[in-house]
């Protein structure tokens, strides 16, 4: 446990809908500064995050902590006091905290926003697995989801693209591709989607920050796509991350239905260049264990505001250091994930991860062919 002095209690006076949501269910909100996600969650997903957080040093589940958004706590939004100073019949009136209608008993996860700190986050949500129904789903739903898997890329490849957004270097708004597109494509079109999400600029190397060199090519930048050298670094990092994630999941006995890989990379040229030498955003086990020593408490105060307590100052400093990332890869959405002793790993999920590894390798090889060669 850290002995650092505690900062004053920061209060998130308001939340807002997640602007960069490309997949999943509606209702996810962010803190006012976008650093946290507040997500309605079913008991099983809450339990899964708690199991990961409580995993011991010798449990394989501990390694999964490196690939999931940092879990800060659980809160329950029931309401707020309308007027604490009003004098009446002794009965206090409760009004909703938010305008959105949320079931009173719905608990919410408080998680780090893995897209926080990116200037222009290009985001892809990839649904994993060949089985799309939970084991306790009614027969009608099982039959329906079997048909969905058969009619989409899920059944054959273990992946389905549920939506993505891509920024151009000179654009303040992303280009959005809805999940309906991912449902409509066939296996043969998956490389096309990867090319759409990882476009490459026709311009040469970007100008390094603070460089005194100028040229026409550095002034006129294409509307989308990183330069080849930056994109190659992104793809190399993500491919390595996927291979490590696959090795981790191969040793965990679980069944994950509806889980996703969330890929984020920096679409801003200058920011990407500055972060080129930084890690992909996946902390090592040792770093992650040190993170977990800094506990953060989450509660709702009497005014219905979300309050974070016990934030050590080095946690704030570490967050600032990790805000500038080239790319990141996370495993998300565990509402229908079960840990089952003796069941072995989820082969459908492993198949999906291997599909992504192959797709990124193909794209990386194409980009590598575009890189200038050096004469020796």
From TrEMBL:
Top-level class of the enzyme under EC nomenclature: transferase
SUPFAM superfamilies (alphabetical): SAICAR synthase-like
Coiled-coil annotated spans: none
Keywords: Kinase, Transferase
Biological processes annotated in GO: inositol phosphate biosynthetic process; phosphatidylinositol phosphate biosynthetic process
Pfam families named among the record's database cross-references: IPK
Entry GO CC: cytoplasm; nucleus
Position of the signal peptide: none
The protein's Enzyme Commission number: 2.7.-.-
Keyword check for Kinase: yes
Molecular function GO labels: inositol-1,4,5,6-tetrakisphosphate 3-kinase activity; inositol-1,4,5-trisphosphate 3-kinase activity
Keyword Transferase attached: yes
InterPro entries in the cross-refs: IPK (IPR005522), IPK_sf (IPR038286)
PANTHER family: INOSITOL POLYPHOSPHATE KINASE, KINASE
Annotated protein name in UniProt: Kinase
Source organism of this protein record: Suillus discolor
Taxonomic lineage from the root: Eukaryota, Fungi, Dikarya, Basidiomycota, Agaricomycotina
């Amino acid at each position: 446990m850290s002995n650092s002095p505690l900062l004053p209690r920061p209060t998130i006076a308001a939340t807002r809908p997640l602007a960069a949501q490309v997949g999943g269910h509606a209702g996810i909100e962010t803190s006012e500064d976008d650093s946290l996600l507040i997500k309605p969650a079913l008991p099983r997903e809450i339990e899964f995050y708690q199991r990961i957080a409580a995993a011991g040093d010798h449990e394989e589940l501990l390694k999964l902590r490196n690939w999931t958004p940092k879990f800060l706590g659980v809160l329950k939004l029931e309401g707020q006091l309308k007027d604490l100073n009003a004098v009446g019949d002794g009965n206090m009136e409760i009004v909703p905290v938010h305008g959105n209608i949320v079931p009173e008993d719905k608990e919410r996860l408080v998680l780090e926003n893995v897209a926080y700190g990116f200037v222009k986050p290009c985001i892809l949500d990839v649904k994993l697995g060949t089985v799309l129904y939970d084991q306790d789903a009614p027969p009608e739903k099982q039959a329906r989801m079997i048909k969905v898997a058969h009619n989409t890329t899920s059944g054959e490849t273990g992946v389905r693209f549920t939506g993505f957004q891509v920024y151009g270097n000179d654009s303040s708004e992303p280009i959005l591709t809805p999940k309906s597109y991912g449902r409509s494509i066939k296996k043969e079109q998956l490389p096309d989607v990867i090319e759409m999400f990882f476009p490459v600029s026709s311009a040469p190397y970007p100008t390094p920050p603070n460089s005194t060199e100028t040229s026409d090519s550095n002034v006129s930048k294409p509307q989308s796509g990183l330069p080849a050298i930056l994109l190659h670094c992104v793809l190399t990092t993500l491919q390595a991350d996927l291979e490590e994630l696959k090795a981790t999941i191969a040793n965990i006995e679980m069944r994950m239905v509806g889980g996703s890989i969330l890929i984020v990379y920096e679409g801003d040229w200058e920011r990407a260049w500055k972060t080129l030498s930084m890690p992909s955003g996946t902390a090592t086990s040792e770093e992650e264990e040190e993170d977990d020593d800094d506990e953060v408490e989450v509660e709702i105060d009497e005014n219905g505001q979300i309050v974070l307590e016990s934030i050590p100052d080095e946690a704030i400093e570490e967050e600032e250091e990790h805000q500038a990332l080239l790319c990141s890869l996370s495993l998300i959405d565990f509402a229908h994930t079960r840990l089952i002793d003796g069941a072995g790993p989820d082969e459908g999920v492993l198949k999906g991860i291997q599909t992504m590894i192959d797709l990124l390798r193909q794209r990386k090889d194409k980009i590598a062919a575009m890189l200038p060669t050096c004469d020796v």
